[in-house]
Design brief:
The chain is of the alpha+beta class. The protein is built from 20 helices and twelve strands. The relative contact order is 0.14.
């Protein structure tokens, strides 16, 4: 049996202790009576790919960045034929989204316009991608150049003698706006190529399904994978550092010392150790500017980067050293993946009539070409840009706390973006006139209550979706990235699902059995033992080193083009993604069978 629909977004109860949670988020992000007639008839799914946990008010900035940019490029710039954008709402601190379909009567005209506009990009893809990297790196340097220090008791003499004409207080107000708007601008670039990249990938999928009705999504995706992209470079650097440690005779010292600071201090005491530490430090910028969020990286201010906490990447280096000592290879099986890619491609191409092979070749070549960007943009935007944005935000919060606007730096993140602008102005105004700002006294009770609400919201288990199930889902991101399909939704609604069986998207082929290891936070990654089945909300590129230890991966969210699915194919590991509730259903220690070819996880024995 299956229910007809998910709960109405207007009937979701507020968790005990979280009354008034709406005040934490901007009004346009909330369900409201003015939009009830529209919103109650739409299908909303929990965006656990980007935001598996409750949002801090300040972190709403991240949602806003992609909400507007994705929509504008789908709807207004490239005229994506089947879909407009992806709308957002926040319920009890969790982000829910819904794809907005294009009017059926507009699709033909939009398809014609899309062909011209996207075709311009496809024909010049590599050159435009080079331009894109230059633009994004320029924005990264703009954010890096911003400084948020406590305001001085007296402006330095240069302010007078160099005729600067404005004060440090003005610059704090100005630079916060610059910080946010630069991130917003970067997200315009983010979707300049991503939407049409997925569209090219979907075109290849559609062509293959039409030509080969029985072909699996995995077989199609494996014809595209196996490319060497910079997203894997951070993990490759850890492997290189492990090999360098062996060459320099440092393996035993590195493996024996748990704390990074103590290890680096010890290694600096001799030439070989100092050489390795210098190598580490050169590598850290930019390759360790890697966010550690579970799921899509860069969505929260609370997670450290590898550079912030070198113990995280160092744990992987130690693991690689242990594997090297055992004689185990630590390199990704890229050659095998490429060989399998070419074998599958040649087999299907041979089945086509001669007249259709050129189109197949061209469509596949474009899919492989855009795939590089689809993977690499994560490094530039979700890691380097967001890591730098959060670092500057923390710098600002420390400065405001030092000046008495907040009791402690973390307080700032319990304010919305526009409230932070108000707090900065209050602080600057008090500094400017030599008076006492109102800030800490004004914000203290608000922040205290929001902390209580935040704690209560984190204990709430959100439903996977809200509203009526859709009849069709054809928005590219929804299908390829989130893995939300009509069959996925139907499975969520089923009340008679087979006990002990979870179904999701077949992310990477193969069948293995092993013990479950549930991981919801990067701090839990060191607990993974060789042969474990990793069960998580979603994986982040920062988790790459664990794929050398696990036997398979099962995720709550994600589609065939999610990071979890892609990286498992690159590492030759089975994966079932988009199960919806693996984390809440499975327990560490349970033995399960993961069938990555069928998209099925079977519990073999309880804990």
């Amino acid at each position: 049996m299956a229910a007809d629909r998910f709960p109405s977004p207007f009937e979701v109860p507020t968790p005990d202790g979280a009354e008034g949670w709406e005040s934490m988020y901007d009004w346009y992000h909330l369900f409201g009576p003015e939009r009830r007639e529209l919103d109650e008839q739409r299908f909303w799914f929990a965006d656990r790919l980007h935001h598996p946990d409750v949002l801090h008010p300040y972190d709403e900035i991240q949602c806003e960045c992609w909400w507007q940019a994705l929509g504008a490029f789908n709807t207004r710039v490239f005229a994506m034929p089947p879909a407009f954008g992806v709308d957002q709402r926040i319920v009890n601190g969790r982000l829910y989204v819904t794809p907005v379909p294009a009017p059926p009567e507009d699709i033909a005209a939009r398809a014609e316009e899309f062909g011209k506009r996207a075709g311009h990009y496809y024909e010049r893809w590599d050159a435009i991608y080079d331009e894109w990297r230059t633009k994004v790196m320029a924005k990264l340097e703009e954010i890096r150049a911003l400084r948020f220090d406590p305001l001085p008791d007296l402006e330095p003499e240069e302010t007078v003698y160099q005729h600067t004409g404005h004060s440090a207080g003005f610059r704090m107000i100005r630079d916060f706006d610059r910080l946010v708007l630069t991130m917003y601008e970067t997200y315009q670039y983010h979707f300049e190529l991503l939407n049409i990249g997925y569209a090219a990938y979907l075109t290849f999928f559609g062509m293959c399904r039409a030509a080969f009705p029985d072909i699996s999504d995995q077989s199609i995706s494996r014809m595209v994978g196996g490319l060497r992209v910079d997203l894997y470079r951070p993990d490759d650097e850890l492997k290189r550092l492990a090999k360098e440690a062996v060459r320099l005779g440092l393996a035993e010292r590195i493996t024996a010392t748990e704390d990074a600071a103590s290890l680096f201090a010890d290694l600096r005491s001799d030439a070989a150790g100092a050489e390795w530490v210098a190598d580490w430090e050169r590598t850290a910028d930019p390759w360790f500017l890697i966010n550690t969020d579970p799921g899509h990286p860069g969505g929260y201010h609370t997670y450290p980067t590898w550079a912030d906490d070198p113990n995280i990447p160092l744990a992987s280096v130690r693991e690689y050293l242990r594997r090297l000592a055992d004689g185990t290879t630590i390199d990704r099986p890229t050659d095998e993946v490429l060989a399998e890619r070419d074998r599958i491609t040649a087999g299907y191409r041979e089945l086509l009539p001669e007249a259709e092979r050129a189109t197949f070749d061209d469509t596949l070549a474009l899919a492989r070409q855009v795939f590089v960007y689809i993977e690499e943009h994560v490094l530039y935007i979700e890691h380097w840009m967001w890591a730098t944005f959060w670092a500057k935000s923390h710098e600002l919060s420390r400065a405001l706390a030092a000046m008495g606007e907040f009791d402690e730096p973390e307080d700032m993140f319990f304010l919305r973006r526009y409230e932070v602008a108000e707090a900065i102005y209050d602080c600057v105004a008090g500094w400017s006139v030599g008076s006492r700002p109102r800030g800490a006294d004004y914000w203290r009770p608000i922040i205290a209550r929001r902390r209580e609400i935040y704690t209560a919201l984190r204990a709430w288990e959100p439903p996977p979706a809200l509203g009526p199930p859709p009849t069709t889902i054809d928005e590219p991101f929804t299908v390829m990235l989130w893995g939300i399909t009509t069959s996925t939704v139907a499975e969520w609604l089923r009340s008679d699902s087979e006990e002990g069986v979870l179904r999701g998207t077949a992310g990477s082929p193969g069948v293995v059995e092993g013990p479950v290891r549930v991981v919801t936070h990067p701090s839990e990654l060191p607990s993974i033992e060789p042969g474990d089945i990793l069960v998580c909300p979603a994986t982040s590129p920062s988790w790459a080193p664990v794929f050398g230890r696990v036997a398979a991966t099962v995720s709550d969210v994600g589609g065939i083009m999610s990071h979890t699915a892609i990286v498992c194919r690159e590492y030759g590991l089975p994966a079932v993604v988009g199960t919806g509730n693996a984390v809440s259903t499975l327990r560490t220690g349970q033995r399960v069978r993961v069938d990555g070819s069928a998209g099925v996880v079977t519990v073999l024995e309880p804990v």
